[in-house]
Amino acid sequence: MYNVPEYSIKTIFIDKSLLLEKNLIVQNALEYANHTKINIEYISNPKEVFNSFLKETEIFKKDIILLCKNKGKFLSSCPGSDGMVCCQYFVINLGIGCIYDCHYCYLQNFMNQPIITVFGNIEDALHEIKSKILNKKFHFRVGTGEYSDSLALDPIFKISPILINFFTDIPNATLELKTKSSFVDHLLDLPHHSKTVISWSLNPQNIIKEIETYTASLEERILSARKAQEAGYKIGFHLDPIIYHEDWEKSYKELLDLVFDHINPERIAWISLGTFRYSPGQKEIMQKRFINDDLTKKEMIIGSDGKFRYYKYIRYEIYSKLKEYIQKKDPKLFFYLCMETQYMWDKIFHFIPKSSKNLDMYFQKRLQYIDSIAKV
Questions:
Q1: Long-range contacts at 193-197 (CB < 8 A, ≥ 24 apart)
Q2: Architecture of domain 72-94+122-374
Q3: What is the pLDDT of residues 30-76, one digit of tens each?
């Protein structure tokens, strides 16, 4: 038994079809529920559960989880934006929705269901991933943090240990687990064979406190990253979304100081930089849900992909100053821009990746470099 989240989950609905097989995810959920006050209810029709909650509440209910089967695809390419430089990332969809409630989260404008969903047919997922990746002449970077937080629900379902073990036997792939939690203790003794990158989305503590509701503190995230690094994992950090605010430069430099005070930069796989952005329709949802929010009150411009972003001169100032600061700490450290234009890549790095495959080469070189120094 490891750390239990402070928030309250009242009920887990379990699709009875998962009970027809010896399902590890179901077993993990039942074991967890036995030690808590979580109620378990078995259902025959997941759609009926969706519909019942749609009638009762708006979306984003955080205390109900539906454990069911995914009847669609598990693996897909990252949904990049038109006109933006994309890094050829792949996404494993093992659930939709998040127990955290970050004010800027794009899922607010994406989800059409009222409750968090976790997919229990993990064997189907592993079979699909293996068939699409194994023996291909390409190194895949694959993550689970696109439609939910990779580790936030691990105290209940323990999905990440299954994935970590699975990817040790996939030579041409690296798994990335992306989180705002501090739940790593259950991963530290696993034989991961350095095939997994555990990464943390970071913001200054004042931003976390104001708009990243229920998430771990900045200090908790960095200390958990240090634990993971000491256990031999490669580490990643995502400064995304960077929030432009008064004293932003001081706040983000202090954040990076804290990172480099605790983390060996030579085992940092990558750092991504991306500024706050949102799709049409999301602004109204955010303003309705978070009345006192300042996020949508700053002037922004519509990009080529239809998303609202800070003006170019603001983004350039942010990226150039953070680039300078990171390179002072470690000139070899690999970092990149997420969902940014070719223009901004040229301004910051003085080159434009010819293709996503071309950019992927830099990720692979960094992973190989970390492996090489680990053998010395």
A1: 193/168, 194/232, 194/233, 194/234, 194/370, 194/371, 194/374, 195/164, 195/167, 195/168, 195/170, 196/163, 196/164, 196/167, 196/233, 196/234, 197/233, 197/234, 197/235, 197/236, 197/269, 197/270
A2: Alpha-Beta Horseshoe (3.80)
A3: 999 988 889 999 999 999 988 888 766 555 678 899 999 999 999 99
